[in-house]
Description:
Layout: H1 8-24, H2 46-76, H3 80-106, H4 115-132, H5 134-158, H6 164-186, H7 194-211
Amino acid sequence: MSQRKLNPFDHIVLGVDQALRTIWGKPQSTGRENPANRHSEGEMNESERVQTASLMRINHAGEVCAQALYQGQALTAKLDHVRERMEEAANEENDHLLWCEQRIKELNSHTSYLNPVWYAGSFAIGATAGLIGDRWSLGFVAETEHQVVKHLDGHLQHLPETDHKSRAILQQMSEDEERHGASAAQAGGIELPAPIKLGMKISSKIMTALAGKI
């Protein structure tokens, strides 16, 4: 039996379902094991635990943004292979989402209360990039992932040395993000203009400051 080709309305319905799962439910993932499960809980004082929870909340919010970005781009992508690439990357981003949320719960903290805002804004950006053109969309992914890797490397330096669980998660995330960025560039993503890169960095700093506290 042949598989029915999805029409634009189908993609909208799936997008809404994905948004609800990302913000309030359990998103579909690849099923990979959480790398933190291979490590035991290290000793941390209360200050270190609060700081780590804040860092992981920021990373979780970043994954909400990434999920929304990919979904927005997939919705407006003009070429099927670009849409499939976005959807495949989104599933791996869902792994990150679940890993971060699990770690936040282990640290007795909460995810960002502003996640619906992060999702809506990132979805709009992704959809706009897709409308402009697939090469722009792929270029946006490549630059986003490049900035995320630098952001994760910074967080790895601020984690307590005894927190092997959070470190394992961020290291795997960094590897995945670097691969996603390289894949987008190889698929034809263009180099974004400097003003756009700067705007992305400023937006990231705002999100980081708010998500770490709220």
